[in-house]
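User:
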Amino acid sequence: MRQIHKRIHEEGTRAIIVALVLAALIITGLNILWPRQTIWHILVYLFFAVVFVLVVRFFRVPIHRKTTILENAVIAPADGIISADEVVMEDEYFHEQRRKLSIFMSIYNVHINFFPFDGVVTYYKYHPGKYLVAFKPKSSVDNEHNSIVIQDHQGREVLVRQIAGFVARRIVCDLEPGDASVVGEEFGMIRFGSRVDVFLPLDAEVNVHIGQVVRTKSSVLATMRG
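Assistant: Predicted structure:
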């Protein structure tokens, strides 16, 4: 796992460089073809300035955000809005009913994912797939996704699923079974809009509701029974 000390995530370096080069080429070409400054020149400048700010903001790292440390708490692994809270049959790992909380991440959210509680990774599997709109229920199994199961010292397990969206087409994660899970440490990210599902035990006490905005590292999604 990587310790983060930079304001911009390393995964954003290439995207920022590409955005800068593309903007420079288009603006240079525009000024060569139409050297006289017009309102269209100003609009193009503003457009690329906004795009650059959005790209940089997307890869920002919440280095000053404090991690919530509470016994039995499951902390939000992603920034976003709670888009689903339901009991579902989880067929990949548990093969039983689980309480599923979905966090929908827009392009304005921090897209780095952080461990929700202390423990060890007991299962990890990458699934290639489609790129449906991330808030659709079927995207949980049909879209490209990663499934990560974390077990704490009491044997309680939670499955965290990173789901690619219509725009997000790259999931970043380099976990392996046996890796330590430390609440508040990074375990991956998803680029440009996506979703994270958290599958909890049925007896977990959920502390959030649909439509609520949550913040990774700090918002308590649920409390598991001891």
